[in-house]
Structures
1.
Amino acid sequence: MNKDANLLENPHAGQGSSVLLDIGGDIGALVIEMPAELEGLEIELRPTGGAVPPGPEDAKGHSNDELDHGHHHGLPHVAVVPRPTPEGDTVYSAVFYEVPEGRYELYVRPDGPVQLTVDVSGGKVTDATWPR
């Protein structure tokens, strides 16, 4: 197995009907119902006040902030994707699966205006709806 495989972004991550959430303690998750017209766009999550947390280090000890492949890794971002419901409908959503407790601003990447502010609690899933 290629040990560098985990360092590559997966453009299909999070697409599908189910998402594994890793919550507990001071870590929560955020599920945002999105308008269908935003499908494929990326939503970025940043702590209120604009503070940018340092990106995680890769296996070689480099911060993801140092990797130059078109975007910044210090802030989490996910794509808006369609997901089927048990009733057979389709819901468009953005799911942030591991979010430290706190208040966050969300916007369309790379630099769209803030569209939504949410409070995420540890050990819980926070539901929100993107403004239309």
2.
Amino acid sequence: MGTVDLHELKVYQLAMRVGEDVWSVTAGWDLFSKQTVGLQWMRAADSIAAYISEGAGRSSAQEIVQFCHYALGALRQTQTWLEKAAARRLVIDSVARELLLKLETLRRQLDNYIATFEPTPSNSARDTSQDGSIHLLPLEEFFHPRTSAWHN
């Protein structure tokens, strides 16, 4: 597998954004809220990008997919802590809705990214040619062009 510049991966960029958003929400909480909900939520949110990063550093598609599945687990955990924070009125409704939308978008991006490594008959990221060979969509579909903010 070739080396991937993480900062060009849309899924990684959004995962990083989610982590920063959770940090912004929890930074002003009282100590009890930070130590109970905030710390768990922050760890889960930051783990999404960390798992994507670790997977991208692996040499086989199987390992990349494994770490992407770990990222999906961290994403689900992030959603759970968001629901708990909202239920405890630690997050205003509009912020909770925005974060849930980002998490759902991120889940779809991760699913699609994983699909590029797992060719199956139901794989929407592939196309079968007339000779029956499988053609995966190029990884470039999952990249953003470089921006100077990431490379300073």
3.
Amino acid sequence: MSKFEDLNKKYIVNDDHSGLLFFVSCYSFKETLERLRLFIKNAKLHLFCEIDHAQLAHDVNLHLRPTVVLLFGNPEKGTLLMEASPFVAIDLPSKILVIEEDNNVKVAFNSFSYLKTRYNIESFNELIEEFDKNIVELITKALSL
């Protein structure tokens, strides 16, 4: 289990060991996205892009539930990880998934602790714990958890 279990169970750790942490928003899909964008900006992180998978599906005459991925991060700190293991770049920048499912708005992200193991970058333990802590705090504040 994740070391963030003590944050009052504000999120769910996926038990398939995928490294995903899930949150449930009390806000609408649109408002959840707006709040996450604002909190990313307020945290002085760079919002690189936003991928609206539902819109892309619609553009080719398919239907997909509301599904958006926000790509964001801190290039200065992310570069440190990529210097240690160039292949970590496939998982950077950080991503937050917002999806509407079963009448709930869910938010998920890949734990950096999982990436630490995946890329054998144990020497960056302190930085990785900081990343996880900051993203969990950003999401819990944005979702008012």
